[in-house]
Design goal:
two-stranded antiparallel ribbon, disordered C terminus, 13 helices
């Protein structure tokens, strides 16, 4: 039975970030900054409420007679009591013989083209721990992208405007960045386990390191780009955010309406169609929030019973990073053109270059992960190297017609005089050739 370390990490980030957010809001209140105080409290309390709701929903506490647990969730102490319960189960596991166990069948990763199916006994304690780990993983994703990501953007924006970086705010931003990266990491692991649920998956430390570096560079550069753009064009940041958010929010629904399917009924039996629609709206809301800052490893498919698209679509991944890179470059260009005196002591071209290179480094670590460190890379129908080779061939195929059309245009641009001169030159060349041939024949004779 694995040690529930992920639960501890989730609880630490949740408690530390909430406590620092409350302290920072009190400092803004004492300084008279009511707007910063309100926004800081909003981005701290909104994810707290959603985390409590998700934990209650996953553990189905509303259908059980557990008034104390519900009261603690209302008091925003749900993660604490859940963590205590997790470690109580972990340390008491094996002391009491369980009345029954369930048997699960998992396939091992294929070796030499063969994959064996292995049966495993899962006791009640291990099943409860698995449920708690899954609940905390989902809570970490909610905390990261509905709380930590906007919170980090807000605090960095305040630092730029005030041109001041306090110690508390620095610690808070570091914790927020770690929370976002950890949430993105959990999202990657959840996507792998959902897509390859039939296999026994073990993620190696190298894979965790690649995901951590990939997400760190991607999220940090994205947040800095948004802050720089919003600091000089405050009005235009709202359309940029809304277009990004609503594009990812409505995309799963558009695909669902095109499929003409009904709403899935396996989310929760007690839910009506209205309740199911509300849950799916919250899910797509979280999905759009994730894609605002980084690539969502989980792709929604609302007409599927599992709500997840299990196909490995490399084209969608490539399109996302190409469009995001171009968007970041455009936002940085706008910042460079309209930058104010706040950035007098900043080398703007060097900063733009560093941010674009940082995003490219994130893409590089992503390619390394999918090519070498992905735990299920043996199950891929095609890998990253084949995709890059195909893209290179397509690029060469597109460039060849352009080169041939350019040479054709040059030939068409010749004037009639040039054509006459070419004809005269060719006649002279033929005469000289005939003369040389006649001389050579006479000499031979």
């Amino acid at each position: 039975m694995k040690f529930p370390g992920s639960v501890l990490v989730s609880l630490f980030l949740f408690v530390a970030e909430t406590a620092l957010a409350l302290y920072l809001s009190s400092t803004y209140s004492s300084a008279g900054d009511r707007i910063w105080q309100s926004l800081t409290l909003l981005f701290a309390l909104l994810p707290c409420v959603l985390v409590q709701f998700s934990l209650v929903f996953i553990h189905r506490d509303l259908s059980k007679d557990r008034p104390l647990v519900l009261l603690l969730h209302i008091l925003q102490l749900g993660p604490l009591v859940r963590c205590v319960e997790v470690f109580y189960i972990y340390f008491h596991a094996g002391r009491i013989e369980e009345p029954y166990v369930s048997i699960t069948k998992k396939r091992q990763m294929p070796k030499d083209g063969h994959s064996e199916e292995v049966e495993k006994e899962v006791g009640q304690a291990e099943g409860k721990l698995f449920t708690h780990r899954s609940a905390f993983s989902r809570a970490s994703v909610i905390q990261a992208f509905l709380g930590s990501a906007p919170q980090l953007t807000l605090q960095l924006y305040i630092c730029v405007l005030q041109q001041e970086m306090t110690a508390v705010r620095s610690i808070f931003m570091v914790l927020s960045l770690l929370s976002i990266v950890y949430g993105a990491l959990r999202c990657n692991i959840l996507a792998i386990k959902i897509k390859y649920d039939d296999y026994d998956i073990s993620v190696k430390p190298a894979a965790y390191l690649c995901i951590f570096l990939w997400r760190s560079f991607e999220i940090a550069t994205r947040v800095i780009v948004l802050v720089l753009f919003s600091s000089v064009l405050q009005i235009w940041i709202l359309p940029v955010v809304l277009v990004n958010f609503f594009a990812f929010f409505f995309h799963p629904w558009i695909l669902f309406w095109q499929s003409k399917c009904t709403l899935p009924e396996n989310i929760e039996k007690a839910l009506s169609k209205v309740g199911t629609a509300i849950v799916l709206c919250l899910l797509t809301f979280l999905y759009a929030g994730i894609n605002m800052f980084c690539w969502s490893a989980v792709q929604l498919k609302l007409n599927d019973s599992d709500l997840i698209d299990k196909s490995q679509n490399w084209y969608r991944l490539a399109l996302y990073y190409i469009v995001r890179f171009l968007e970041n470059a455009f936002l940085l260009l706008m910042w460079y053109m309209y930058k104010t005196d706040v950035y007098t002591y900043v080398c703007a071209p060097l900063l733009v270059l560093q941010l674009l290179i940082g995003y490219c480094i994130a893409v590089l670590f992503m390619l390394v992960f999918y090519q070498f460190c992905h735990p299920c890379k043996k199950l891929f129908s095609s890998n990253i190297s084949e995709g890059l080779a195909l893209c290179f061939k397509l690029f060469c195929y597109v460039c060849k017609p352009l080169a041939s059309s350019t040479s054709g245009e040059k030939a068409d641009l010749k004037t009639p005089d040039d054509t006459v001169n070419d004809a005269q030159d060719s006649c002279k060349a033929n005469e000289s050739y005939n003369g040389n041939a006649h001389q050579s024949v006479s000499s031979n004779a």
